[in-house]
Amino acid sequence: MSRPEPLPRTVRMLLLARTVNQLGAFSLPFLTALISADHAAGLTTAGLVTAAFGLATIPSRLAGGYLADRIGPRTTILLGLGGCAAAQLTIAVSASPVGAVAGAVLLGLAFELYEPPSQAIVGESVPERQRVRAFSLFSAALAAGAMGAGLLAALLGRWDLRWLFVCDAVTCLACALLIRVALPRDRRATAPARQTATAVRPLRDRALLTVLALGTAYALINQQTVMTLPLALERQGRAAADAGLLFTAAAATTVLAQPLVRARRLARLSTRAALASAHVLLAAGLTGYALGRSLSALLASAAVWSLGDLLVMGRVYALVTSLAPAGASGRYLAVFGCGWGVAATLAPLLGTQLLARTGVTALWWTMAALCLLLAALHLRVTPESPVAPSYGRLQSTGRAPWRASRSLARLNGREPKNPRSADIGDG
What we know:
mainly alpha; globular; disordered C terminus; 75% helix
């Protein structure tokens, strides 16, 4: 295994800032539990409130991609983090269900603003052949923060769930401060670059729509392990806060498994084969949730799940970035990310109904079966990445620095060249 190429400073600072932000990102899985416990709402009502949050994330994600390509990624990230902090504090201090609902909707409207620009910085600041590794490290950075977040959730959740939202707001503000200090100012795009960006029509790219459909199904399953897990544990006679321990185990696995992701055998897998293998691992982890009764068994299942999740994240975001024309990666990533908004809307509704009508075991068996179905579909319909992934150091040809500089130029709107003109300008 060769030594990996160092990441640009901009990407490293972004990873540090998002790690800080992730230290507080443990409140969302407990939103349903907070509404149910503190505001005496039933499972259906709590699920509807969480669904309202998920629905609000769809326009938030689209706005994040549009703003990233128009006003710049740094400014968009700061707007999103500030809005999230305000919403988290609103939920924490709400004394009625109405206040909690308002805070949940506001959180949804701000929650996804910073994701497309963050992903665009990662994807456009490294050479194309290093994107899988860069996105895998991005997932690892978030997981590193989640390790501490899970422990804090297990501690604070036993005291008062409202403190989870207060801590989340504080970390959002700390992340915003790091972004403002560490990332360079956004540069205004040139007129030709703005015209090229305006002509892009992501929803007319069939390859992107295929990835979006499969990604939405994956996100729906993923969100069950986030939003429904605390309730499922309660149904099994455990404390909802134990979900924090499972989240920590999954995050630790994501960080420790980075050398495995760089293994040559995995690197040689095609995009289709890698994503299919990842979904088989996801199914194995969910099967463990269905069968496991002891805490150790559940922790092992969380670790297996996280391996599949890591493989998905590295490959799929690199694929979406490679499909995007120059200057449009923000919007391509935003359209793909809308699947997460759809999933966040449907997951609490489907999860709470499955729990209420069929129980915990049926919930996890259903999700495992869907993972196996997705594995088969990936082998048949997923488009291959135009550029093969590479995890080792690039050969000393002099091309890598130029390609990295060109990617940064695309990010800043200074290169109007469009390598995939067939996908734009048709309407």
